[in-house]
């Protein structure tokens, strides 16, 4: 929707007032070339007053808001160049004119707004200056229709391809730049950096049909790639592009495949090596008249959307406006499909649903008029039900899937500012999640014990997660990142220890002792979850000094358990007790480590970190190189039943405080401990103190909560508990 992540483009002010889809000399105001937020230095100045047909900047800003987009910034080409090149204000960039450029933020699912053609067309339709265009497919005979034959080998690498032709296109420099820029933006958005779809555009007059889509070993593919002058074998080309800043990020898509996808014409001329590069032979220029568009994909639905977006946005420059020539794609099993499919998508929508969800009452005629502004055709349902309408979305509106999408467009066209404010029929009360509240209290108590909190990356290197901690990967625990951008982000952490050790490594010159902790999530593979993994809240602390610090970390563990209200016991005790027993964790030194057992379950471990994990010159880079003793502990978050009693009591007290009442102190169980020192954390605790007591009770039949629970939450806990 409108509040999701958005795609941002730089455009000059779009022409709004002309009823014609193309203005004389209008397309100097197109998206600038150069890809993501790039700027073309060759465009001439396009005054915003002419581009917006007299609309002032604030008026254009208001129009954008009404349409559901945002005028994010108004800048100049010189300012952008100065920022890109890090020039000082007094330095003049290599640009002749102070062109005004509008930076517009659009919804992420509106692919038709990623180029100025679509944006300007949509705004003109919205303000009633242009009719909704009718996109058509040329009616040509099967003998005249171009064909693309798909070979069976493509099934293993990139099984789908869709194609279309734009005939009689008239390019100028601005239109050409916009054409290339739209491909870049689609690649970054719906194409997911070419992994789902890769777009290839070619000068059809340099090629000879029919075409074939094949998958061949790299050594058998030879061609001159775009912007190159010599012939490359496909495997040589992959090595060549490893140093290319733009293309190297796409190599991983097919690099490890035994066969590479490739498109040939009937003369065995290479059109493209998707998703990497097009061939130089069929490169598009300003003189190109007929454009052949092919989209190879792993997702046929996304491929159709991308193809439809390309042809609908630029078919207005064809000799026959908004008419596209189809291409027949023949698959190995003999089936064939004709692309593009420019038919409207229709759905039945309840009038009562969209008006009630939008929060306004409207007549049917008003609804039809408003939806027409959003390029949606509306007619009465053929079912005969007066409450139902049939809504048809053009091929440019791939975001229209359900009735809720129609309702959203209706609300936009009506105007969000015009929707009356109402009191909800149900009353809800928002509060912090108990786990997050518990975590914050833990943090405060650990900090008061003298430990400093660190926040480290959830991602770490594979070695940090395993070999540096002397642990082995069983293949069933850790989430491994595919195609990581850096060796620092190869796996999702399964323990907080790597982050703490790395923090010490980079701060080893800090005065000793170094006492740090972290409260955060770790991730494990989990077949029971729909996403295949689950988060667990953990706590870990680390003590680094010239001595081992075992007794310091042991004291911290005891402090934590005490403030939670869990007394120490001995092995075999039944009840809410904890006890210690020898452990054999590989990241800790044998004989200097203990497991923490609660209700016969392992909830944490503490001990001296194994020297091999922190100082091993034989590992070279695979070592933290910390020449000090380190004690640490890791704890799974325990939700003791007394904690829930505390949370419930806190809510009751907060309600009483809201009404201005004082608190009464309840009698506490004999098992509760009283601390000689009391710290205030929240206002309701302060009220208890003013009443002369820091003890909180619950009821006569439930054990009371120890007063030191408030302080526990700030203790340094290095234990890890499953949430």
UniProtKB/TrEMBL annotation:
Organism ancestry: Eukaryota, Viridiplantae, Streptophyta, Embryophyta, Tracheophyta
Record's keyword annotation contains Ligase: yes
InterPro entries referenced in this protein's UniProt entry, alphabetically: aa-tRNA-synth_II/BPL/LPL, B3/B4_tRNA-bd, DNA-bd_dom_put_sf, Phe-tRNA-ligase_IIc_bsu, Phe-tRNA-synth_IIc_bsu_arc_euk, Phe-tRNA_synthase-like_B3/B4, PheRS_beta_core, PhetRS_B1
Chief location: cytoplasm
A Pfam match: B3_4
Entry cofactors: Mg(2+)
Subcellular location: Cytoplasm
Taxonomic source organism: Colocasia esculenta (Wild taro)
E.C. no: 6.1.1.20
Family under the similarity heading: Belongs to the phenylalanyl-tRNA synthetase beta subunit family. Type 2 subfamily.
Key words of the record: Aminoacyl-tRNA synthetase, ATP-binding, Cytoplasm, Ligase, Magnesium, Metal-binding, Nucleotide-binding, Protein biosynthesis
Protein name: phenylalanine--tRNA ligase
CDD domains, per database record: PheRS_beta_core (cd00769)
Subunit structure: Tetramer of two alpha and two beta subunits.
A GO MF label: RNA binding
GO CC aspect terms: phenylalanine-tRNA ligase complex
Region called Disordered, residue ranges: 1-31
């Amino acid at each position: 929707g409108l509040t999701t992540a958005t795609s941002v483009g730089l455009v000059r002010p779009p022409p709004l007032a002309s009823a014609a889809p193309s203005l004389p000399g209008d397309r100097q105001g197109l998206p600038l070339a150069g890809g993501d937020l790039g700027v073309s230095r060759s465009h001439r100045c396009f005054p915003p007053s002419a581009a917006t047909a007299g609309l002032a900047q604030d008026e254009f800003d208001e129009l954008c808001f009404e349409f559901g987009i945002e005028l994010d910034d108004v800048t100049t080409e010189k300012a952008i160049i100065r920022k890109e090149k890090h020039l000082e204000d007094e330095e003049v960039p290599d640009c002749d004119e102070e062109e005004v450029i509008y930076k517009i933020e659009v919804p992420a699912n509106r692919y038709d707004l990623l180029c100025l053609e679509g944006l300007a067309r949509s705004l003109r339709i919205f303000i009633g200056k242009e009719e909704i265009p009718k996109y058509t497919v040329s009616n040509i005979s099967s003998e005249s229709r171009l064909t693309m034959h798909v070979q069976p080998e493509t099934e293993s690498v990139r099984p789908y391809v869709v194609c279309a032709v734009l005939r009689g296109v008239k390019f100028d420099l601005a239109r050409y730049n916009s054409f290339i820029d739209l491909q870049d933006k689609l690649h970054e958005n719906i194409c997911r950096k070419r992994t789902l779809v890769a777009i290839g555009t070619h000068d059809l007059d340099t090629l000879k049909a029919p075409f074939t889509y094949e998958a061949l070993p790299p050594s058998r593919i030879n061609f001159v790639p775009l912007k190159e002058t010599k012939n490359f074998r496909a495997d040589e080309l992959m090595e060549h592009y490893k140093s290319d800043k733009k293309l190297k990020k796409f190599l991983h898509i097919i690099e490890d495949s035994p066969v590479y996808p490739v498109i040939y014409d009937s003369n065995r001329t290479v059109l493209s090596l998707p998703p990497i590069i097009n061939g130089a032979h069929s490169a598009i220029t300003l003189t190109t008249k007929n454009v052949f568009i092919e989209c190879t994909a792993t997702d046929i639905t996304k491929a159709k959307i991308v193809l439809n977006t390309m042809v609908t946005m630029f078919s207005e420059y064809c000799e026959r406006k908004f008419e596209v020539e189809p291409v027949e794609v023949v698959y190995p099993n003999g089936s064939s499909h004709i692309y593009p499919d420019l038919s409207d998508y229709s759905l039945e929508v309840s009038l009562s649903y969209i008006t009630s969800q939008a929060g306004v009452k409207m007549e049917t005629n008003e609804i039809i008029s408003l939806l027409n502004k959003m390029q949606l055709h509306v007619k009465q349902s053929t079912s005969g039900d007066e409450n139902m309408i049939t809504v048809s979305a053009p091929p440019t509106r791939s975001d229209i899937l359900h009735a809720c999408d129609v309702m959203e467009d209706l609300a936009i066209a009506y105007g969000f500012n015009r929707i009356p404010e109402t009191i909800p029929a149900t009353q809800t009360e928002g509060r912090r999640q108990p786990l997050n509240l518990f975590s914050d209290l833990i943090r405060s108590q650990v900090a008061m014990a003298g430990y400093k909190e660190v926040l480290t990356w959830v991602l770490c290197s594979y070695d940090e997660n395993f070999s540096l901690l002397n642990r082995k990967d069983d293949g069933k625990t850790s989430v491994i990142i595919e195609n990581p951008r850096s060796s620092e982000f190869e796996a999702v952490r399964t323990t907080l220890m790597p982050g703490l050790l790395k923090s010490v490594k980079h701060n080893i010159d800090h005065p000793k002792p170094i006492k740090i902790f972290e409260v955060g999530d770790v991730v494990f593979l989990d077949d029971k979850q729909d996403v295949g993994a689950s988060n667990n809240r953990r706590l870990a602390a680390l003590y680094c000094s010239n001595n081992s610090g075992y007794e310091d970390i042991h004291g911290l563990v005891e402090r934590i358990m005490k403030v939670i209200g869990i007394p120490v016991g001995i092995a075999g005790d039944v009840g809410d007790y904890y006890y210690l027993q020898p452990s054999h964790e590989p990241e800790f030194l044998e004989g200097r480590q203990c497991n923490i057992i609660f209700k016969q379950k392992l909830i944490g471990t503490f001990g001296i970190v194994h020297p091999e994990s922190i100082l091993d010159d034989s590992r070279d880079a695979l070592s933290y190189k910390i020449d000090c003793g380190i004690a640490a502990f890791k704890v799974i978050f325990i939700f003791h039943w007394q904690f829930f009693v505390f949370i419930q009591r806190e809510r009751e007290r907060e309600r009483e405080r809201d009404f201005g009442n004082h608190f009464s102190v309840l009698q506490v169980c004999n098992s509760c401990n009283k601390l000689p020192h009391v710290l205030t954390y929240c206002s309701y605790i302060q009220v208890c103190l003013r009443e002369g007591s820091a003890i909180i009770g619950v009821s006569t039949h439930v054990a009371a909560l120890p007063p030191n629970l408030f302080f526990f939450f700030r203790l340094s806990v290095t234990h890890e508990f499953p949430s």
